[in-house]
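4.2 Preliminary Data

To establish feasibility before requesting continued support, the project team ran the inverse folding procedure on a target of 241 residues. The structure was first converted into the token representation described in Section 3, and no sequence information of any kind was made available to the design step. The complete token record follows.
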């Protein structure tokens, strides 16, 4: 006989579908800290944000941009510099970078972009901690998913479990923007508070703390071809500062 469905699984699946649908209105569809050594979010020795790296195949995260906005066809003139107020200071490198992005992608909205990035960050962090490969597979590119899936599988083989509570996302900000031809790269800095602990198969905490809040600064970099009608932004790098 088939085993009855686990109601918890059904509820989580429905929640995941709802969140992915909700993200589609902000991010689109298509698709810290004391972490365990296998945590793919941790920056490894020698890793850098590859500002000149090609975008990997497959969609990771779709963030709002001009391709999501019907105004795109009507906004081929110079961007409205008022859009950058509160996100960059005039005449700074970031301001100039945003100007370049705005000329290439007139509908780019930094406020909505950061809202989408925040939602994506929370979804991925929670899915990884829960070991939910199905949710991750819908949000990350195949090569990124392979790294996440391996870390989860290795953790499960050791009988370990990760408990992560995202206490708050205190700040999201644009760190830098770069245009390489039609390729736009936007790096977002997340200042967050987390409670995270790794337990072994006996339930003993082997890393982190079940009640200590830690401050984390993560830098995630997204990219998209602004010359394409495809509005998908793809996660191309992560770094913990």
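Position-by-position output of the design step:
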């Amino acid at each position: 006989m088939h085993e009855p469905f686990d109601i918890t699984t059904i509820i989580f699946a429905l929640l995941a579908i709802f969140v992915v649908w909700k993200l589609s209105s902000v991010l689109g569809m298509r698709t810290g800290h004391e972490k365990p050594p296998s945590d793919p979010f941790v920056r490894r020795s020698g890793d850098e944000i590859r500002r000149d790296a090609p975008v990997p195949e497959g969609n990771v995260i779709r963030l709002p941009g001009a391709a999501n906005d019907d105004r795109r066809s009507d906004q081929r003139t110079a961007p409205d510099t008022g859009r950058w107020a509160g996100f960059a200071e005039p005449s700074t490198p970031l301001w100039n970078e945003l100007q370049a992005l705005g000329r290439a992608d007139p509908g780019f909205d930094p406020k909505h972009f950061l809202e989408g990035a925040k939602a994506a960050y929370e979804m991925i962090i929670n899915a990884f901690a829960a070991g939910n490969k199905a949710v991750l597979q819908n949000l990350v590119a195949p090569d990124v998913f392979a790294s996440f899936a391996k870390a989860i599988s290795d953790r499960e083989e050791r009988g370990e479990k990760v408990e992560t509570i995202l206490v708050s996302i205190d700040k999201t900000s644009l760190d830098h923007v770069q245009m390489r031809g039609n390729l736009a790269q936007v790096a977002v800095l997340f200042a967050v508070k987390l409670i995270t602990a790794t337990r072994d198969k006996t339930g003993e905490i082997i890393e982190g703390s079940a009640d200590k809040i830690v401050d984390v600064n993560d830098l995630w970099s997204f990219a998209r071809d602004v010359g394409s009608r495809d509005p998908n932004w793809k996660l191309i790098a992560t770094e913990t500062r």
